[in-house]
């Protein structure tokens, strides 16, 4: 492979983005320490490129313009979409990193071919990565539709949602697309659900097995650190509690002793008799039988940060749905870092997909 030092160093971004995309799918969380080294790499490669072209003359004004577009248009675009709620924080930081590392098209000569194969007159490589990512992202609803049809699902929501077992929600990401009242585009965020379960020191299984007891705010015992709702994090209680049972994934504590303060939450391996004096608890109780059903208001007041926009009504409706149904419809979403990484891989190897498509139709 024939390549300049700067372009060779730029390739270091590719495995980092691949790792980040996989982690983002699994946990929806990326460490902040991931980005500063990439920003430093961008500054280094840009400096090496400028030194290699020094003194700038002739057509180098076009190179300077492309760098300016990447740094002053693409990078702020990532920040702006985050500020408007269109991006997550990690997505915005990834776009900024690409704008710094890939302001112009790199060149890699492999087996006599120069990659990328398709360049654009604009020559702003970070912009090419973005347009590739948008085209890849358009394929995700199609994938959802195909998988839904393969499962025998047919509805007008098949491009945007999936019907999944309720018991699987503890390890899923996304948002409920329905509530106990029917379809909704602003259902309970599954990270907020995990926060609530960890705060209560209970499990999804117990919510489904003993919904009346969990609905009763008087049954709330010691509460714990809700974490940020991520999948697979290890939680430790704030209180000096005696823990009898810890689920295998370490996400939640299922019981704490009364010595920790208040009544102990119901153990997930108990039968109805675990309810003690509430053996005859009427599971047909409705939410209006309590001042604060499910302890929703208490939970949101107790945490020191936002629960992904969840309000008490949304939390109650989501918990009621989970308690009632064996399957629920979820809007899974896709972290933008996934199509962004795919767009980067396609850009480095093939080039600008949109420009190639436009050329096929004689537009470009």
What this model shows, in words?
With 364 residues, this protein is mainly alpha-helical. It has two domains: 5-142 and 335-360; 162-331, no CATH class. It is 46% helix and 6% strand. Strand 5 (178-179) and strand 6 form a beta hairpin. The radius of gyration is 26 Å and the shape is elongated. The two termini are 30 Å apart.
How many domains, as an integer? 2
Q: Given the helix and strand composition, which structural class is it?
A: mainly alpha
Determine the fraction of residues in helical runs and give it as a percent range: 40-55%
Distance between the termini: 30 Å
> Could you give the order of strands across the largest sheet?
3-7-4
Q: Characterize the main sheet.
A: 3 strands, antiparallel
State Rg: 26 Å
Number of helices: 13
How much β-strand is present in the residues?
5-15%
Task: Please write out the topology.
Blueprint: H1 5-10, H2 13-27, H3 35-53, H4 60-83, H5 89-101, E1 108-110, E2 113-115, H6 125-150, E3 162-165, E4 175-176, E5 178-179, E6 182-183, H7 190-200, H8 204-209, H9 211-215, H10 296-302, H11 312-324, E7 327-331, H12 337-349, H13 353-360
Antiparallel strand pairs: 1-2, 3-7, 4-7, 5-6
Helix pairs in contact: 2-12, 3-5, 4-5, 5-6, 6-12
